[in-house]
Records
---
Amino acid sequence: MQILRLPVLLNNYIFLLYEADFKIASVVDPAEADPVLQCLHELDAQLVAIFNTHHHGDHVGGNTQLLQAFPQATVYGGAEDRGRIPGQKVFLQEGDRVTFGNRRAEVLFVPGHTRAHIAYYFPPVQSGEVGELFCGDTLFAGGCGRLFEGTPTQMVNSLGKLRDLPDSTRVWCAHEYTLNNLKFALTIDEENTDLQNRFEMVKAMRERLESTIPSLLGEEKQTNPFLRWDQPSLQARVKSQDAVQTFAKLRGMKDQF
Ligand code: ZN
Ligand code: FE
């Protein structure tokens, strides 16, 4: 399975999954249809599935037009998103599995950003492969999504599920927010040398207009404050010894940043 990254809108990514053997493709969170249709045309591939993580317009905006071009494509989304995702056919819950070509993804229910948000995790099949995580607006490189419809407790549970995946997992989040996220992270975790190094690297990449996505889950665990609510240094920083409270305070500070 190849993964192609299509930058769209201001800072969104659409991910196109491609199986050359079968000339089939699927997309994760098509904000727009035209760049996807263009790419499918170049690959001479059939679109068989749309995998949505949540209902926001910058994630489902291309669904209807893609379905017009490929009426047989199946639209997947969270069960709780019923009525909010255009063309949705399959209503997924925690533990469900979806297939694309020879690969199978596990569905993780990760509410917090929205009440219905799901993530898709493709575990490695053969040795040498790594897991691929499509986490929408739940976990970002160096940050996490805002809490629009969920509570800090839900978000800590959701991010905790993602944090449990192997370090080698590639994190395909839906936005290029990394540099700003790391700028914030440095204000509350300035002694963290992994974070300092990552910031310098990301800054240089952005100066060259390179994408910082995917990141590796292992580096997120070391440098992303929203996966580090149980770190004593961060807890001390916000004067709490409670994971959820620490997360909530950090998220509140980021909202003001
Ligand atoms: Zn969103
Ligand atoms: Fe978004």
Note: The longest helix spans residues 193-207.
---
Amino acid sequence: MEEIEQLRRRWLARIAEADGADALEAVRVAALGKKGEISLRMRELGRMTPEERQSAGPALNALKDEIDAALKARKAALDDAALEARLAEEWLDVTLPARPRPRGTVHPVSQVMEELTAIFADMGFAVAEGPQIETDWHNFDALNIPPEHPARQEHDTFFMHRAEGDNRPPHVLRTHTSPVQIRAMQAQGAPLRVIAPGRVYRMDMDQTHTPMFHQVEGLAVDREISMAQLKWTLEEFCRAFFEVETVELRFRASHFPFTEPSAEVDIRCSWADGQLRIGEGEDWMEILGSGMVHPRVLEAGGIDPAAWQGFAFGMGIDRIAMLKYGIPDLRAFFESDLRWLRHYGFAALDRPDLAGGLSR
Ligand code: DAH
């Protein structure tokens, strides 16, 4: 019996030491294989006396079972360890690392252009464009502002140089987006509905003026276009843009050479506690000029004023951006101060749309 106990210890130790599938298989063959030590011992039972066999038989059988079980347990443990090792080695990170927030921001002017483009697109207006270096004719004459017209002086125009001896009127940096009306009519004919946001230039610089600023022009031409439709369009725009349910607009008779009749439009607001609120209060703030397109302007655009009519409006983008987002100083818009841009800028990937909200 002593001998069986030694056998047991030796084989269990060898099993425990086997450090891989091959080593373990070698141990199994050496113990339980045809010529394995335990198998040989079992065979020896046949040569024993019945008494010897009676005590050695069950002990050997039990040892064989125990070794068999130990082999199986060791095999399972080695398999688990091999799988663990493989998993660790072949591990693939399928998660995305957190990306740093983009540091760039969308300038409030760009944001507002996107916003108003979304609003007017919803009302069927396409975006039209024109050059910033414009002909004198598109910027003035075609808009019913002939050379001697006093409105020319009011525009503080930047003129481009002409070559010596070239007596044609010089090109100008466009003083408003209205010339895009002419270009859109010439390019598309009637009916049409466009807005034209963009840069304009005037020789002017103080707290509320910069030599370059932004306007958006609107133009709708059709068989029967009325002042009432102009009013509705502007009210809808203001409601959507300022994100308030009630807006009240006031149309004041005015004069622009390119519209007849003309109106300047004020929006109801309050300045209580130095904070501007749109749609309530007793104050009025001018936000745009508008009117029914002058027949001569339709003609200059190649459209028959006897058959078509239209409304137009022009609005300062920087100004409505300041109003909506509470930005006090216009000049800061164009100083490219990073701190200002980070403070007033908009997240780069949030595109304004009517369904998702304009200014999240
Ligand atoms: N062009 C004008 C300006 O710069 C604004 C304007 C007024 C545009 C009336 C229009 C309009 O289309 O109908 O002051």
Note: The pocket of 3,4-dihydroxyphenylalanine is lined by residues 176, 178, 217, 256, 259, 289-291, 312-314 (CB under 6 Å).
---
Amino acid sequence: MSLQPVRGTRDLLDDELQSHQRVIRIAEAIATTYNYRPIETPIFEYTSVFQRTLGETSDVVGKEMYTFSDRGGESITLRPEGTAPVVRAIISEGLTQTLPQKRIYSGPMFRYERPQKGRYRQFYQLGVECIGMASPFYDVECIALADHILKSLGLSDYKLHLNTLGDTESRNKYRQALVAYFSQYQNELSEDSKTRLEQNPLRILDSKNEGDQKICADAPKFGTYLGAEPKAFFDTVLKGLDALKIDYTLDPHLVRGLDYYCHTAFEFKTTTLGAQGAILAGGRYDGLMEQMGGPSVPGIGWAMGIDRIALMLPTKGNKKGLRIAVIPIGEELETEALKLTQNLRQHDFTAELFIAGNLGKRFKQADKTECQIAIIFGSDEFSQNQVKVRSLQMDEGSSNKEATIESSQLFSYLSALSI
Ligand code: HAM
């Protein structure tokens, strides 16, 4: 029996898990002010929910889905993303009668990708979907929400890349132009792009293959084929972003890896995570609900990679997480120490009682559990209503600082240390 987690999965603990929880807490609080409400869909769905919607030729459907037959013979897929399930849920819950539906979700997603830093087979997304709003102002709102959350998490090292995929008519014309162009280079294209040429030539623009990229440099530009209406739509999005002072870079090669997009497509990218630079991505998907068998209702949304964003957050240096060890000297003071520990917790301090073993062993335990402060008292201190407060984690070379504090002053002393 292997005791290792499955390749591409991992146990989340300590700082990393706390960073995940912090991202979710802050994102949910901010999304509430944009009137988003929570939704949670199942972790697996019928395979059909993803197959056509994400695109038969997309990498996700073609190579990355965890699909299996259950014991009843149904084809089931662990969700690789959250948009199709949320749209499915809006239809099956009858919520298309009460639009708009602005929903926020988070949880694990599953893709069979080659694992590396920032790329996992079980990874975590937090996403928002705004369903039922056709105006470009909602594209602006949606992007502004993403930017607001990233900034509130203390991040600044990222850029918003933006493109329009236009309407169906513009895309069809562009597709024809691309087929004509890439057909000249059919023998030089990578194997993947040869397949894309037949099935979805737009995706060649997104190829990571160097040879493909050289050929793409002179490919026709979408702007030439963009109709007046989708152009005006995109211009309104850009004006809105300008008005809110949200910086962006126009990126005509940004085509997204999933098929349901139209009009606005965007990615927030960082250069600090190496190859896995996309930390948040999304766009408009006006045809998705109808394609899934629901009414024709527009939608726009995004999802952030929590794992990637957590890697960018500072982990240390937050004194609010002060951990306190309570160490009584002498058996007769153990009950007093128990009471003090409980009292600290009721005042929102993180406290741990160390009773068993000699003093040296207890200080070691306190250190291992990452307590920064120890409150120590023996019968002398107790009879004088005092305690000793010793800092445990000092810079190398310096000795541990210790102060004697009146018991009545203890909480205000600790609060001052926590700021
Ligand atoms: P996506 O671009 O496939 O879009 O994924 C969104 C984000 O999830 C990526 O930018 C990345 O940060 C993160 N991510 C994707 N795959 C992995 C992985 N294997 N390991 C770690 N992080 C990963 C979607 O999923 C769309 N549903 C977004 C959306 C919502 N569009 C409209 N509404």
Note: The first strand starts at residue 37 and ends at 38.
